[in-house]
Specification:
Strand content: 5-15%
CATH class: Alpha Beta
CATH architecture: 3-Layer(aba) Sandwich
Helix content: 40-55%
Shape: globular
Number of domains: 1
Radius of gyration: 17 Å
Number of helices: 9
Order of helices and strands: EHEHEHEHEHHEHHHE
Strand order of the largest sheet: 3-2-1-4-5-6-7
Number of strands: 7
Largest sheet: 7 strands, parallel
């Protein structure tokens, strides 16, 4: 018995920040589902090369800085040049400055730097992807990766929380605007995940204990546990879902 298949055969997906963590697991799952996959990397070339070797010829790494709307548009253009179309956009890249900084002490450079990567580049990516999907006249899927921090805030990380909160509002706005054209826009909001970005906090015994105490499942997620819902939202099984914020947080209580 074959079972149920989540298939993206014949589809082209662009996954940002795809060389490690959640992004790399998304690349693997989308490849396993039959999609042609382009993913962005900025500086982790060895990991990117290893991932493309594992997945094969229809998975490609595109080196691209993502800190402006212009950068985002350039990445979409590279993807379309490589594969001639774009059906799924997964906006996964981002930065989380690990040091606790109060709003009274946060520098303009940190604030602007975080928003440039986590929000400005997203505007360019979405703008270019939507334009391409409209030209194709066959709809498409956009999944933005937010965070529990975007819903309930995160003390001493106001820059990160503000950017991730903006992605939630962007999801709702774009869904209302684009659903009638067959372009589905949804958001996955992870809680704590065992990635390189969160490692500084998870490796600190005191912070780790505090983090685990807020998660009813008593552990953090694996990257694949986030990638699974992302894939689902790009398949026909999610054909009546648009504008939703899918919480993947182990049962952690969300406020707001």
């Amino acid at each position: 018995m074959a079972g149920v298949l989540l298939s993206l055969a014949g589809r082209v997906a662009l996954i940002t920040g795809g060389s490690r963590g959640i992004g790399a697991e998304c690349v693997r799952l989308f490849h396993e589902a039959g999609a042609k996959v382009a993913f962005s990397c900025r500086s982790v070339r060895a990991e990117a090369q290893k991932l493309t070797s594992q997945c094969g010829g229809e998975t490609i790494a595109l080196e691209q800085e993502l800190s402006s709307s212009k950068d985002g548009r350039a990445l979409v253009e590279k993807t379309v040049t490589a594969f001639s179309r774009l059906d799924c956009l997964v906006v996964n890249h981002g930065i989380w400055p690990p040091e606790d900084i109060s709003i009274a002490e946060m520098s303009d450079a940190q604030w602007r730097g975080t928003l440039a990567v986590n929000l400005d580049s997203v505007f360019g990516l979405v703008q270019a992807a939507v334009a391409q999907m409209k030209r194709q006249k066959s709809g498409g899927h956009i999944v933005l990766i937010s965070s529990t921090a975007g819903q309930r805030g995160e003390a001493y990380h106001a820059d990160y929380a503000a950017a991730k909160g903006a992605l939630i509002s962007l999801t709702k706005s774009l869904s209302s605007e684009l659903a009638g054209e067959g372009i589905y826009v949804n958001c996955v909001a992870p809680g704590w995940v065992a990635t390189e970005m969160s490692a500084p906090a998870l490796l600190d015994p005191a912070r780790r204990e505090k983090i685990f105490s807020t998660i009813p499942l008593g552990r953090v997620a694996s990257p694949r546990e986030i990638a699974g819902p992302v894939l689902f939202l790009c398949t026909p099984f999610a054909g009546f879902i648009s504008g939703e914020i899918v919480n993947v947080n182990g049962g952690a209580v969300l406020v707001g």
